[in-house]
Specification:
By secondary structure, the chain is an alpha+beta fold. Helix content is about 25%, strand content about 30%. The protein has helices at about 1-30, 70-75, 80-85, 100-105, 115, 160-175, 325-330, 360-375, 385-395, 395-405, and strands at about 35-40, 45-50, 55-60, 90-95, 95, 110, 140-145, 150-155, 180-185, 200, 205-215, 215-220, 230-235, 245-250, 255-260, 265, 280-285, 285-295, 295-305, 310-315, 335-340, 350-355. Helix 8 (about 360-375) packs antiparallel against helix 9 (about 385-395) and helix 9 (about 385-395) packs antiparallel against helix 10.
């Protein structure tokens, strides 16, 4: 029993060291990479790249550098207000008169991060009245879920509204909805210009638009190509009301769903993965700039307003594990444990094993060192075989643990 207690303490120590020591290593030796900010100039039809490496620099793809004012003039759709203040805003661009209302109506900004998706399902959603006649949206008194039917639950009494539930469930059933829902996607907030309800995926991967108009259900089935499945759906609320959402397929394709006509348009971009990548999309009167980035790259794909691809820019750099400090890390540690993941906001134990066996060399050296320690204590080696195996498998973590909680303390 005493020996088991000792090995339990050794295990706890190994876990603690696997959390703390790698973190201290990266705090001391990691060299942060400053990701460039890439935008597309409708003036030069070229990429403008802003970097922050020991000072802010602004340049184009050819390497020409610009002052702050020159850089802002290359991006009038982004710095419209500043150009108006300084009196340098263009009267026309590409033969189109620059009307501030039109610029504002066509400007859109969208951002997605993996941590937005890696989150628990709330289970209950508010369904707003789409045509309330009020200037501002108001939170409803009930919330819905879609299991074996669409069910509305009063927030105060926690009772099911049978009449409303049956009414919405019946319409869903008539439209061909297969219960339960596998994905419910919308903007469950009053901080939007209007309510367009939810895009719901049923159990047979059919897509439906569900909202409430004057207390009555509105359900529209969206025609999808055969076999198309969505990884995630992100609803948006842009001023121009061109489309309801960005839809990401399981094949890392990007679609939009147009408003009112319900046309599903596949955008000519590829390798768009919201679960692994940071995604930003900037829209204006002339272009859509679709930016994806991860630890080792940034990529900008440019579309015109008719969704045709016109240009692309990509920049890569070695990820942390491939740089010098990463190679040394792989020689020192067999694994690490994180309490948080960069792609999630939730704490947990995240195990990451080193993709190399270089650490075995240090483990063998530590096994030899432990053998020397045992002999100097004039102890029997066979009584420490488990300790030697622990050091071999867990490296420096195990070496420290078995020497802090030594056998002789529990003899």
């Amino acid at each position: 029993m005493v020996k088991l207690s000792r090995y339990f303490l050794v295990l706890v120590a190994i876990v603690a060291f696997a959390i703390v020591i790698p973190k201290l290593y990266w705090m001391a030796f990691a060299k942060p990479i400053s990701t460039p900010f890439v935008m597309y100039s409708c003036i030069d039809n070229d990429f403008m790249i802003q970097r922050n490496n020991n000072g802010l620099t602004r340049m184009d793809r050819k390497g020409n550098t610009y002052t702050r004012e020159e850089y802002e003039q290359k991006l009038p759709m982004m710095y419209t207000r500043q150009l108006l203040i300084s009196g340098t805003m263009y009267d026309t661009i590409k033969g189109i008169a620059m009307d501030m209302h039109d610029i504002g109506m066509n400007r859109s900004t969208y951002r997605s991060r993996p941590k937005y998706l890696i989150a628990p399902d709330p289970g209950l959603y508010p369904l707003f009245e789409a045509e309330s006649g009020r200037a501002n949206l108001e939170m409803p008194s009930d919330y819905f879920r879609i299991t074996w039917r669409m069910e509305f639950v009063d927030a105060q009494s926690n009772k099911v509204d049978e009449e409303k539930s049956q009414m919405f469930s019946a319409v869903l059933f008539k439209r061909g909805f297969k219960f339960p829902a596998t994905s419910i996607n919308g903007l469950p907030t009053t901080r939007k210009s209007c309510d367009e309800g939810y895009l719901v995926v049923d159990s047979s991967n059919q897509l439906f638009h569900v909202k409430m108009i004057k207390g009555k259900p509105y359900v529209k089935k969206v025609d999808l190509p055969e076999g198309l499945k969505f990884k995630s759906i992100d609803c948006v609320d842009f001023k121009n009301k061109k489309y309801y959402a960005y839809l990401y397929s399981q094949e890392n394709e990007l679609y939009i769903l147009t408003q009112d006509e319900y046309h599903l348009i596949k955008l000519p971009v590829d390798n768009i993965d919201p679960v692994e990548q940071n995604i930003r999309i900037y829209g204006d009167m002339f272009n859509y700039n679709i930016i994806t980035s991860d630890e080792g790259f940034i990529r900008s794909q440019i579309l015109d307003i008719d969704y045709n691809k016109v240009d692309e820019y990509k920049e890569t750099w070695p990820v942390r594990s491939e740089r010098t400090e990463g190679k040394i890390f792989k020689m020192l540690f067999p694994a690490k444990i994180n309490l948080s993941d960069g792609k999630s906001n939730y704490n947990d134990f995240y195990f990451e094993f080193t993709k190399s066996i270089n650490w075995l060399l240090l483990s063998l050296v530590l096994v030899a060192a432990q053998f020397v320690v045992i002999r100097r204590r004039k102890e029997i080696v066979k009584n420490h075989l488990i300790d030697l195996c622990i050091v071999l498998v867990t490296g420096i973590f195990g070496f420290l643990a078995v020497n802090i909680f030594q056998n002789k303390f529990f003899a």
